[in-house]
């Protein structure tokens, strides 16, 4: 990819008011910008200098700290200038406008979303997995997710992937060397223990995948939708799981007309729980607002990772509940929650049946809530291993799955002895490409565009 070396600038701190705000600039050479902004002053690289930030006519915009990083010893690998002033929106906009004005002659322009980190990647300051970890650290919604993002940002995930790539490459070189010198008539697979080497690579990849899959849970969480007839306790259950009164609870059926969302944590896993309008047969007796609420309920059900179907334990399933179950999309796990056991006489319990897992609880009395939390973690596939995890993205998991499949095919060809060495080598090559795409050693321009466009401006 060709790197655009025109200098860029943007506000690097979040919108809103704060004690400190930062305007950042980056470019191949920022010497003209420094002269225009601070005539007569000398900024020593990597030293903080306190001085006034002035407009072109000399009027002071703010007093603050300027730090100059001489490339390649900077975040982007280029010259970088950071102006740290007071964090008022108007002040920062004035300061950014002045920086753009001062650098106009050198082609300074406003940065695009994620462009600073994109330049860090293209200048080999970060690999692609580390660059993504920057955004993940900023967006982390739990402490566990933040720790895992830091782990990936430090390069631990990348080093693990590099090790897999090197193992795969080493085996591939042996296979291709045998193809290049067939006259040696050496039983390659036996002499070099190629099958054993391949088995080790597959086992290592599986271990990485498990840690990455757990890390993906920390990043993405689960979308859990509460579904059921009116007045079965959906809002009470949401409040019990959230530990706060986030939804209105009354004896009147149909209180919830629109979705109510709340993000909670269970063992560090973010769960986006959505309380929806009670479902009942839409007829002329239902007003237009409730009708819209029910339609939105089914839209949320279609996007769910887990469906929690609430029923009244004292009444049992009704015909309407059977209709609700029949309309559930295939492939989405369902938990049948029998609420109000404080009135029905049931005990809090979990019962795994063929159709779904049944959980008996009382949202009102908070009885059996821990059982439900444990069941949600089980469905998510979460395992508390105590090991550090990689905050992986879906594209990482897709690449790891694809690499695993190519290695499995390579094992099948290896089982045919030396007769399929060419196919063996080809599957190793494809596995290597998939693994390399994670760190960006092999990535398309389109993929890079998608990844960095999701960053905030100034990062």
Briefly say what this structure is.
By secondary structure, the chain is of the alpha/beta class.
Protein described:
It is a single chain. The chain is an alpha/beta fold. Helix content is 45%, strand content 18%. It contains 16 helices and 13 strands. The chain has helices spanning 31-37, 89-102, 115-122, 128-139, 143-153, 156-180, 188-191, 194-220, 234-242, 288-302, 319-326, 341-344, 369-380, 394-414, 421-439, 445-453; strands at residues 8-11, 18-27, 48-54, 60-69, 79-87, 109-110, 222-228, 260-266, 269-275, 306-312, 334-339, 349-352, 357-360. The strands form 2 sheets. It has a 7-stranded mixed β-sheet with strand order 8-9-7-10-11-13-12, with helices on both faces. A 6-stranded mixed β-sheet has the order 3-4-5-2-1-6, with helices on one face. Helix 8 (194-220) packs antiparallel against helix 14. The longest helix has 27 residues, at 194-220. The chain is flat and about 85 Å long. Mean pLDDT is 82; it is low at 246-258 and 281-285.
Q: For this entry, what is the oligomeric state of its chains? A: single chain
* Helical/strand content category: alpha/beta
**Tally of DSSP β-strands:** 13
Order of strands in the sheet with most strands: 8-9-7-10-11-13-12
Q: Give me the number of helical elements.
A: 16
Proportion in helices = 40-55%
Shape: flat
């Amino acid at each position: 990819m060709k790197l655009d070396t025109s200098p860029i600038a943007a506000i690097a701190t979040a919108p809103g008011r704060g004690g400190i705000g930062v305007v950042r600039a980056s470019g191949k050479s920022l010497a003209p910008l420094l002269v225009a902004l601070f005539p007569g002053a000398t900024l020593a690289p990597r030293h903080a200098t306190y001085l006034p930030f002035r407009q072109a006519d000399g009027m002071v915009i703010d007093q603050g700290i300027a730090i100059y990083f001489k490339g390649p010893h900077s975040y982007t690998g280029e010259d970088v200038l950071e102006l740290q002033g007071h964090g008022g929106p108007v002040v920062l906009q004035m300061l950014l406008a002045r920086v753009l004005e001062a650098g106009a002659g050198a082609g300074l322009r406003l940065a695009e979303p994620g462009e600073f980190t994109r330049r860090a990647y293209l200048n080999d300051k970060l690999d692609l997995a580390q660059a993504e970890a920057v955004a993940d650290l900023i967006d982390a919604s739990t402490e566990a997710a933040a720790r895992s993002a830091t782990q990936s940002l430090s390069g631990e995930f990348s080093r693990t992937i590099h090790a897999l790539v090197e193992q795969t490459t080493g085996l591939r070189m042996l296979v291709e060397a045998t193809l290049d010198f067939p006259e040696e008539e050496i039983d390659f697979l036996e002499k070099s223990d190629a099958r054993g080497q391949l088995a080790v690579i597959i086992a290592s990849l599986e271990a990485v995948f498990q840690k990455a899959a757990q890390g993906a849970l920390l990043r993405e969480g689960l979308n859990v939708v509460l579904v059921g007839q009116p007045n079965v306790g959906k809002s009470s259950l949401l409040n019990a799981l959230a530990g706060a009164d986030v939804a209105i609870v009354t004896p009147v059926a149909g209180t919830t007309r629109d979705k109510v969302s709340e993000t909670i944590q269970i063992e560090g896993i973010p769960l986006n729980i959505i309380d929806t309008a009670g479902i009942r047969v839409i007829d002329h007796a239902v007003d237009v607002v409730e009708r819209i609420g029910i339609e939105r309920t089914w839209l949320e059900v279609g996007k769910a990772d887990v469906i929690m179907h609430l029923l009244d334990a004292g009444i049992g399933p009704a015909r309407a509940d059977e209709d609700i179950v029949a309309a559930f999309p295939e492939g989405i796990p369902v938990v049948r929650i029998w609420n109000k056991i404080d009135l029905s006489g049931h005990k809090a319990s979990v019962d795994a049946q063929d159709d779904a897992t049944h959980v008996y609880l009382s949202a009102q009395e908070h009885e059996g809530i821990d059982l439900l939390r444990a069941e949600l973690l089980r469905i998510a596939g979460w395992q508390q291993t105590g090991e550090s995890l990689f905050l992986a993205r879906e594209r990482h998991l897709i690449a790891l799955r694809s690499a695993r499949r190519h290695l499995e095919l390579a094992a099948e060809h290896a089982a045919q002895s030396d007769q399929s060495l060419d196919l063996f080598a080809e599957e190793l090559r494809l596995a290597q490409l998939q693994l390399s795409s994670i760190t960006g050693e092999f990535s398309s321009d389109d993929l890079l565009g998608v990844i960095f466009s999701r960053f905030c401006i100034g990062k």
